[in-house]
Amino acid sequence: MASILPKFGTLELTSLVQTWRPSISQRLDAIIVPRRDGSIGDSYPKFLPRIISIGGRMIGSSGAVLRTDLDNLKSALIYAGQDKLWLWDDRYLNATFKDMNYNYISPNLKNVDIDLSFYCHDPFQYSAAQNSQQAT
């Protein structure tokens, strides 16, 4: 049975993730024909790249600790390049870190709400299980 294990490459995101918002869209090519109602569409539309948005909260013991944790997270995401993005431990997407937005929360500024976005050139999920063949 699959377990939730959010991570990007080797960077564990379990303590950060509160929301996971995937999107998937199709390219719909349509031709408008004069004197005809509607349009003629592609029978097999193609999928567009996927954007995965992750929302969460970081809590620091002090403002300085939180700032250091944010800097470390930004650095790890920026330098990771393209890697595997996991929500479940049995499926992943090939993704690249896209952007990070965050808001400090008053009154003590030791908490921050974070939104991360990942760009998936390939919109499909892949299984982590290895295919095995038995020789007979």
Structure summarized in a few sentences:
With 136 residues, the protein is mainly β.
Structure write-up:
The chain is mainly beta and 136 residues long. Helices cover 12% and strands 49% of the residues.
Mean pLDDT: 86
From the spread of the alpha carbons, the general shape counts as elongated
Number of helices: 1
Radius of gyration computed on alpha carbons: 20 Å
DSSP strand count: 12
In terms of per-residue confidence, which ranges show pLDDT below 50 for 5 or more consecutive residues? Answer: 131-136
Question: End-to-end distance, in Å?
Answer: 29 Å
- As a percent range, the share of helical residues equals 10-25%
Report the structural category. Answer: mainly beta
Our estimate of the beta-strand percent is over 45%
Query: Could you describe the largest sheet, including whether it forms a barrel?
Result: 8 strands, antiparallel
Give helix and strand order, one letter per element, not per position. EEEEEEEEHEEEE
Key attributes of the depicted protein:
12 strands; mainly beta; disordered C terminus; 8-stranded antiparallel beta sheet; 136 residues
Layout of SSEs?
Layout: E1 4-8, E2 11-12, E3 17-23, E4 26-27, E5 30-31, E6 40-41, E7 46-47, E8 50-59, H1 63-79, E9 82-88, E10 91-105, E11 111-120, E12 126-127
Antiparallel strand pairs: 1-2, 1-9, 3-8, 4-7, 5-6, 8-11, 9-10, 10-11, 10-12
